[in-house]
Structures are given as structure tokens and as C-alpha cells.
Amino acid sequence: MGMALLETRTIQCESPDNPNPHDLPYTDECLDGASSSWQVVEERRIYAVKQALIGLVDNMQENDSMRVVAYADSISETNVRAYPADGMTGDKDILNRAIRDAGDWGQGPYTTRGGNSSAQAMQSTGQLLEQAPDRAPDGSEYKDVVIYVTDGVANIFLDGETNTARNIPFCRDMSVAEALRTANPCQLGITADGRLRPVTALINEAIKIKQNDPDLDLYVLAIGPADDTGLAQVASEMGLFYPANTPSVVDNIFALIAAQSNAGTCRVTEGEATSDISGHEAGSLPDFPVPEGGHGYVTIRDSQGNVLPEGQGRLPVVVDPVSGNLVYRLPVEMGLAPGEYSLEAYINYRGDDGTARTYRQLVITNDPDGTSLLRFTIPSNAVGDVYTMDSLLLDIAPDVALCPASPME
Questions:
Q1: pTM attached to this predicted model
Q2: For residues 369 and 364, what is the distance between their CA atoms, to the nearest angstrom?
Q3: Less packed terminus of the chain by CB within 10 Å, N or C?
């Protein structure tokens, strides 16, 4: 009598170039090849998203309506498909069936394949919003909300061509698989023939939607460890961008989005920079003290990161009695020796809502995301010279809340 010993192992079936956080052994002999899915259905990202969407539908209010837009280069001739096909609906059975069917390419509702045609999906969403009704059956005005969910980098042009980025030297040195999931520089910018690369096209289509409907809330949910470059710019504002590194948090994020949408989202608007804050006190905050009669400090460090001694490295930010503007000065008699330096700054400001906040994010024209550190050089031939520093523009750091905290936080 003979026996056969069968071994069960967890393996990675896709390209060995793809991320492999569990360091699984690779094989190219899986039943479905590169299209093989993770063995535990309930642990797949698409499963977590669809279950959360079903929960969102189940909690819809009486006059709410919804539509699902699925996207991938395997999904249709246009790489995008809307469910249900005949428009928005409030029928929960229809919507739940639409969620189940979305993206099903013959291997079941919880499998996915193909590139990320995100820009095409955003363009299609804008067109569908223009066709959507303005008022609910009870006559009340609809509030438009878009939830954009992605687990990877946009890598398909608006015309449907996959961007392998072979025309970018840095990306050409990568494998195609690596270039497809690398946003910067492979999927950002404009090609020589004037086409927006996929991530840039996605941002551009989102901007069009937001310009057409300034009251719209555009949420972005990024699932998994994929590169999220540019996704915060897709959202209506930074606070509507939610990274979800594990599927287990997806339900909570959808619940939070539902609560915000029903209650009305606190919106943050951009304003012009000002150096005149007369009538407002600073407010001393933990780790950010202020000088008497001032609002903050500028800190100067040497090339090794050490704060300069003897008053050179800690300059108070005060209100100039003549101009009324915020200023800082390094007295000429102190001076700075030639060399490399870095500069940080912060001010405290108590706004009209009565809350004091610290502004310490430097806004620099060549770095739109901001930084907290500015480097500058005093040349060796500058002995005796007097310099006027460029104006510093300070903004709220991304981790500072400007809206009331959610009950779930």
C-alpha cells in the first residue's frame, strides 16, 4: 500500500517584484497564475470594502440615493462601469446587489485584477454627478458625497493606455510592475506629447468635480500599504483623506464618513496670508512658549543641528510697533559666521473660535506640501554684509485639527 504526503503552504503567487510584507516564498505555478487571489476570502481588501459599503447602504436614510462606480482595465471597454446602469437609487436591495456585482469578472465578487484606471473613474464620476437629480423625492435638496476607494497607484491614462513609464529614465530602470506602483515620478506629471500622467490626471479630474460643486464632500480611502502620493489632493480637504493600512479599520472609517455626511462636514477654507494679527493674543501652548508681548520664536541651528548660542539661535517673533506686522530680527552686532544653517519658526494665534493653535508649517513655493525646516547659507565673502531674510509664511501643521473632533475619535 502506498501513501502520498500532501503539504499545505502559504505562498505568493504574483510577481516576485510585488510587495511581500510577510516574506512568503514565491512560486509561478499557482492555479490562476498572477491572477491568483489571497486564500482567505474574508481577509481580502475587496471583501472588507464591499462589506463596509453594504453597511453604508443598510444605514441609508429614507431619501438618500447612491450609485457604485467600479474601475479597472479588466472591467469594460472604458475601464469603468456604473451600478445600477440606469442611475441613482435608494433601493437597498438593488444597491447591495450592485456592490456584489461591481468588478466581478467571472471569478466571484471578491476577486480583482487589472490596472488602476482611477483617472477614468473620477472623470466618469464627474459626468454622472452632472446627470444626478438635485432634489430628493420629498423635495429636499441633495448633498453630494463621493467616496473614492483605492488600493493602489493610478497607472492608466485617461485614454485607457497603461503607463509603464518606459520614457522616464528613473522608471525605465525599474521593472514594469514596480513602475506601475510608483507614483513619483512614474505616474506624475505631463508626458512629452502633453498627456497628464495617471496620478496627475486623477488629481485634475477631482479638481474639476470640486470646482463644479464646491459644496461636495469628496472622501478618499486608501487601503493597504500602497503609495498614496497625491491622494490627499484628490480629497476635498486633508481631513477627508483616510489611509487604512489594515482592512480591519475600513468599517470604522465608513461609519465615520456616514456620520460626518449626515451631520454636515466642518469645512476648512484657505485664506490669504497676513502679517497683521492685531487684536488677537497668542496663547501659550505646551512645548510652544511665547515671549512677553510676542507670539512665538524663530530658531536658527548650525549644520550639525545645534541651536546657536548667546541669543543668536532663539529670536522672538513680536509685533513691530511702527508697521503693526509680525517681525523677527537678529541684531547686527550678533551676526552670523559664514556657513550652513537651518531655520525653524512658530507663532501661536488664538482665532475667533477662542482656540489657540500653533502655526509652524513653512509654506515654500517649491514645496507645496510644506516643511518645518528651511536651510540657508551665509557665503564666505559675506563678512560685514547685512541680509534681509525672505518673509516666512507659516501654516497649521497637517496633524492639527481645525474642526470639532468626531464622537468616534
A1: 0.61
A2: 8
A3: N
